[in-house]
Design a protein that fits this description.
- There is one protein chain.
- 39% of the residues lie in helices and 15% in strands.
- By secondary structure, the chain is of the alpha+beta class.
- Strands 1-2-4-3 form a 4-stranded antiparallel beta sheet, with helices on both faces.
- The radius of gyration is 16 Å and the shape is globular.
- It starts with a helix and ends in a 6-residue tail after the last helix.
- The mean pLDDT is 95.
Length: 164
């Protein structure tokens, strides 16, 4: 898929088909995260891939705004290292790479923001010193979620040339 077409068509997906995403596609998606640029190339991230359905159900209890994770084929817990002052920006760059790589493969995701991070850390043995940036559920989108029109502000509302 053309990069700009991918950017134009990508949507946040919260409804998934009951279809397994193959390991080769999962590996492409997380590799896209690993390849993201980072400040001083420090790569302050870790990715935990969760495929086990029971673990996804448990994580659903901790994802206040993302209970739909229970229907995902898999999820990626994106962890950053707060000792790096750019960890959230760099981690977000990795998330965007994974999101676009997934869409290119016909797989959707949606950033989950409201998470009981302490309970997730405890459940997944994540060191307390690290930060859970997000959990990304991934799966093949239900058709109706893809066909909705993407609504964006007009260019005149957001583009400014030379001055505000």
């Amino acid at each position: 898929m053309d990069t700009f077409e991918c950017l134009r068509k990508r949507r946040d997906i919260r409804s998934y088909l009951k279809k397994v995403v193959p390991d080769e596609v999962i590996k492409k998606i997380i590799e896209a995260g690993r390849l993201a640029p980072s400040a001083m190339n420090l790569q302050p991230w870790h990715f935990i891939v969760i495929k086990n359905k029971e673990t996804l159900r448990e994580l659903g209890k901790f994802c206040v705004s993302g209970r739909f994770i229970i229907d995902a084929s898999f999820a990626v817990v994106v962890i950053t290292e707060p000792s790096n002052k750019w960890h959230e920006i760099d981690g977000t760059r990795a998330v965007q790479n994974m999101s676009l790589a997934a869409w290119n493969e016909g797989v959707g995701t949606c950033w989950i923001g409201a998470i009981d991070r302490e309970k997730v850390k405890e459940r997944l043995n994540i060191p307390k010193s690290l930060h859970i940036l997000t959990i990304l559920p991934f799966g093949y989108p239900e058709e109706f979620t893809v066909k909705r029109k993407k609504i964006r502000k007009s260019p005149d509302e957001v583009f400014h040339w030379e001055k505000f």
